[in-house]
Specification:
Blueprint lengths: L11 H6 L23 H11 L11 E5 L5 H15 L6 E7 L6 H12 L14 H15 L2 E7 L1 H8 L2 H8 L8 E8 L4 H4 L2 H7 L2 E5 L4 H15 L9 H11 L4 H18 L6 H21 L3 H15 L7 H15 L6 H13 L3 E7 L5 E7 L3 H8 L20
Parallel strand pairs: 1-4, 1-5, 2-3, 3-4
Antiparallel strand pairs: 6-7
Helix pairs in contact: 4-5, 10-11, 11-12, 12-13, 13-17, 14-15, 14-16
The structure holds a DNA duplex.
DNA sequence: CGTCCACTGGAATCAAGGGTCT
DNA sequence: AGACCCTTGATTCCAGTGGACG
């Protein structure tokens, strides 16, 4: 191929001028798997000890891993996956499969993903829709058995799947061994919901949780170690002022010791400093980053809402703007009915709107508390829970173009 | 103390839209 | 082409309920 010569472009002035503080941005991503996972060696040993029989074609126990977000569960499991690939490079004895149930929501989707990670031949691949679950089960089971080896299936965020689809897949995956002649399947479930096990039926509970491992949140000192480890490879010496890492660690430790948040904080702080043209990263950058992250996540959540949810949120906002601070589901629904024609969307039933309100509550955009007004019924007391800046962005949304001339018809709450 | 409101929360059901199979 | 299958989002149905009021 002919090699082209670099010409000047509109990118030049940014590339040249910009002072790079971060030598390698990759190392600051929470998805990056370092060679060493500080403060998790004992967990790694524990898990590896349990699953090591797989390398001699014996079935390891199923494992249930429980711990809050950012305690290193996913990182540890990915790390082990990498090591497994070193120990058995051609997957002759054992295949290690990782599925994130938050990304793949439906039971068909999970099975489909497992299958297609296992099945390499194009002709045997399972179509992403159309088949009955039973058929996928059978196909997958046959294929697994043919391979004559151990399959370790890691199901991350397993509680999400359970909530959506019940325990059908777990049932299938935990009982599959009884029907296999040559191969073996062993499960590793990851959940950040401590109450998850209580929800499972006793049969599946005992099968899934043959071994249970709990990940505790990192302490501020441990977070500091983790960040330092990454900072060492991500920055040139002297760029990071000494109080930055402890500050990031302290902030994140307050919020449940989440290492992912700590890393985000450090990375965003570095980004801000870099964009500012500053020559080092200081405490001020971290504080700024903290606000930015908080705001960004809320904006992101609001942006990705479905249109109907947005209209409901808008109804809540309109109520609040109209000095109705503690509105009820009924208030929101009447406003919602009025707004819908303006934005040109169909009016959904009150029950559905109530569902959407509950959803907004779960996302933390509003506060909704069930409250009883005695004779006047039982309803939710609803408050908006997002700050002015986010609202400003929200009301600018295209779908609300025609809402400027909307006037609330009447105020129904009696004082 | 019982009543009764305006919902809640759970479940069953429907419709539309993606697809395969024969 | 017609029979099926799964997912998603909405709808319909219904029993249940906290507590102010009479």
């Amino acid at each position: 191929m002919e090699r082209k010569i670099k010409e000047s472009s509109i990118f030049d002035k940014f590339i040249d001028k910009r002072k790079t503080l971060i030598t390698n941005r990759n190392f600051l991503q929470s998805t990056y798997i370092p060679d060493q996972l500080p403060h998790r060696q004992n967990k790694i040993d524990e898990i590896v000890e349990i699953i090591s029989p797989s390398l001699s074609r014996n079935k390891p126990s199923n494992i249930l891993i429980i711990g809050k977000t950012g305690t290193g569960k996913t990182a540890v499991l990915n790390y082990i996956g990498k090591e497994m690939a070193k120990a058995d490079p051609n997957e002759e004895k054992c295949s290690y499969i990782y599925i994130n149930c938050e990304v793949v929501t439906s039971s068909y989707g999970i099975l489909f993903n497992i299958s297609n990670l296992i099945i390499k031949e194009n002709s045997k691949r399972i179509p992403f829709t159309g088949w009955s679950l039973d058929k996928v089960y059978q196909e997958l089971r046959n294929y697994i058995d043919e391979k004559n080896k151990v399959f370790i299936i890691v199901l991350d965020e397993i509680d999400k799947s359970f909530k959506e689809n019940g325990d059908d897949i777990f049932y299938f995956l935990t009982t599959i061994n009884e029907e296999l002649k040559n191969s073996m399947v062993s499960l590793i479930g990851i959940s950040n919901n401590t109450k998850f096990t209580e929800l499972l039926s006793t049969k599946i509970k005992s099968r899934l949780g043959e071994e249970k491992i709990i990940f505790t949140p990192y302490t501020p000192q441990q977070l500091t170690d983790i960040l330092n480890e990454r900072a060492k490879i991500a920055f040139e010496p002297g760029i990071l002022s000494s109080d930055v890492v402890p500050l990031c660690a302290a902030i994140s430790a307050q919020n449940s010791g989440d290492a992912r948040k700590a890393l985000d904080l450090l990375r965003v702080a570095a980004d801000i400093a870099e964009r500012n043209g500053d020559s080092s990263i200081s405490e001020a950058h971290v504080n700024y980053a903290r606000n930015k992250i908080e705001m960004d996540t809320v904006v992101e959540v609001v942006k990705t809402l479905t249109i109907q949810s947005k209209i409901v949120l808008m109804s809540i906002y309109k109520n609040m703007e109209n000095d109705n601070q503690n509105m009820t589901t009924g208030d929101v629904f009447t406003t919602y009915k009025e707004i819908c024609p303006y934005v040109g969307y169909q009016i959904l039933s009150q029950r559905t709107v109530a569902n959407l309100i509950a959803e907004l509550d779960m996302l933390g955009l509003i506060h909704a508390k069930v409250k009883s007004f005695g004779r006047n019924g039982r309803t939710k007391e609803i408050n908006l829970n997002i700050n002015k800046d986010v609202i400003d962005i929200f009301v600018e949304d295209d779908i609300f173009k025609n809402l400027e001339n909307y006037k609330p018809s009447k105020q129904m709450t009696l004082m």
